[in-house]
Structure formats: structure tokens, C-alpha cells
Specification:
2 domains; disordered N terminus; single chain; alpha/beta; five-stranded mixed β-sheet; about 270 residues; Beta-carbonic Anhydrase, Chain A; about 50% helix
């Protein structure tokens, strides 16, 4: 059972298609990179780096080996890409998603380094007073001037499953409060579904609540009014690799009411 609607030709998916068709990257002209506080490091012993990643039982050292192979391949195939990223970034998408290892945003969108600014946490929950997500949103909207904010949930979410249960989870308990509120508000419907269906429905409802939270932020409302920033709620189907866009758009009347309310309170 799903309350989602699929929009295969939505503005966000048309935008993604256009990005994939671009073969050359425009020069980066703003947002210079700050001085780095990170040092280049090498693995020890060196033999672990040179070993075949597929034969190396240590996943971390294997990943470092694969990184070197990726960097060399990228330098050969797109010699200007990494050099341009060293100058600065100008992503057009802010992605807010779950920390789940199965949901790597750049990979599932078919995009490249520098294309997506990212914030991820357990179950892609947006707490209105959370400093971490608020700082990311502020920076992405006001300084990077992203064109799209994408809030993504996903199927088979462990955080959602935890919120559907009643176990004590330590520090996760206060974090999952918004999800458990959604559970209580929709308890009868959720109890009538299978575990997988309930997980998916909770994920969709969580995305919708997150979109509402985004639309309460002054920096977001200003960008919507002044330059047409768009917000999208999506669900990632882990089993198929496909994104579904939820119908989270405001009508013109709803958007106008939000803007009037914001200006009245300001």
C-alpha cells in the first residue's frame, strides 16, 4: 500500500537527465576551496596498498587501493574534473538522505563529484532545531545557491524499522521521536500492513514531514520566492535502484500562504 505518486517527467528528473547529457564541465568561477586542514596519508605497510583489492581481506586497505585506481582512471578520462574541483564547487542539488550504506546519492543519481551537496543522518529525519542539518541547508541555499533540495527516504530503512518497534535504543530514542510521532498518528493504518509495507509507508510519511520542515525555514522560503528554488521528496527503492518522486508540491495558494505567514512573522 503506498501513498506515493510517480512523476517520470518532473522538473527534478528532467534536470538530472540534462546533467547526464553534459559532456564537458563549465569552469568553476566561485566558492573557492578553503585552506585544507587535512593531510595526504599513505597506508602502511606499503605492500597492502599495492595488493590486489579483490585479494585483500582488509576492506579498508582494499578501498584505499581502489581509490588510487579511481583517481588515475578519472585523471585519464576527465583530466580537467579534479583540477576544477580543487578550485571550488557549485553543486545544483542539495541531497538530504539516510546514512544507510545502500543509498549513495552520487551513484544512484548517475552524477559526479561536485554535482551534489550532501547531508545524511539516521532515517533522513529533519529536526527543526538540529544545528547540523540547519547549517548544511543554510550554506547550500544561501552560499552555494543550489537550485534543488531533494529529501530522500528509502525502502527497508533500519531507522524506520526501529521507530516501528518499542525497544529502548539509547541515544537513538530522542532522535527517532519524530518518526514515532508519525507511527502513533497513523497506527491503525500501519498495523493493517505487512512489515515491508509499513516500513515503506512510514518512510514516505517521514519524507513528507521533512519537506514541511524545510518549507518552514526562512532561508528556504526566501530562495523559493526570489529565485525559484524547488524542493522534492523522493523514495529510493533499494531492491530496484529506482527513485520515486512523491507529490509534495504546494499549490500556488499554499505557497502564497507560506510566504505571507513568513513575512508576517519576520
Amino acid at each position: 500500500m503506498s501513498i506515493a505518486r510517480l512523476f517520470p517527467r518532473s522538473s527534478f528528473f528532467r534536470f538530472l537527465t540534462g546533467m547526464r547529457e553534459v559532456q564537458t564541465r563549465r569552469p568553476v568561477t566561485h566558492t573557492p576551496a578553503p585552506p585544507s586542514i587535512h593531510r595526504t596519508f599513505s597506508t602502511t605497510p606499503a605492500s597492502l596498498c599495492s595488493a590486489d583489492a579483490n585479494q585483500n581481506p582488509d576492506r579498508y586497505f582494499a578501498a584505499l587501493t581502489q581509490n588510487k585506481e579511481w583517481a588515475a582512471k578519472t585523471a585519464r578520462e576527465e583530466p580537467d574534473l579534479l583540477a576544477s574541483l580543487a578550485v571550488g564547487q557549485r553543486p545544483e542539488i542539495l541531497w538530504i538522505g539516510c546514512s544507510d550504506s545502500r543509498c549513495p546519492e552520487t551513484t544512484i543519481l548517475g552524477l559526479k563529484p561536485g554535482d551534489v551537496f550532501v547531508h545524511r543522518n539516521i532515517a533522513n529525519i529533519l529536526h527543526a532545531a538540529d544545528l547540523s542539518s540547519s547549517a548544511v541547508i543554510e550554506y547550500a541555499v544561501r552560499h552555494l545557491r543550489v537550485k534543488h533540495i531533494v529529501l530522500s527516504g528509502h525502502t527497508s530503512c533500519g531507522g524506520v524499522a526501529a521507530a516501528l518497534g518499542n525497544k529502548q535504543l539509547g541515544i537513538l530514542d530522542p532522535w527517532l521521536v519524530p518518526l514515532r510521532q508519525i507511527r502513533e498518528q497513523n497506527l491503525d493504518t500501519l498495523q493493517s500492513l505487512s512489515a515491508d509495507e509499513a516500513n515503506t509507508l512510514m518512510g514516505e510519511l517521514n519524507v513528507r514531514e521533512g519537506v514541511k520542515t524545510l518549507k518552514q525555514k526562512s532561508v528556504v522560503l526566501e530562495a523559493i520566492e526570489e529565485r525559484g528554488l524547488t524542493i522534492h521528496g523522493v523514495m529510493y527503492e533499494v531492491g530496484s535502484g529506482v527513485l520515486r518522486e512523491l507529490d509534495t508540491n504546494d499549490t500556488q495558494e499554499q505557497l502564497k500562504a507560506r510566504l505571507v505567514s513568513y513575512k508576517t512573522e519576520a
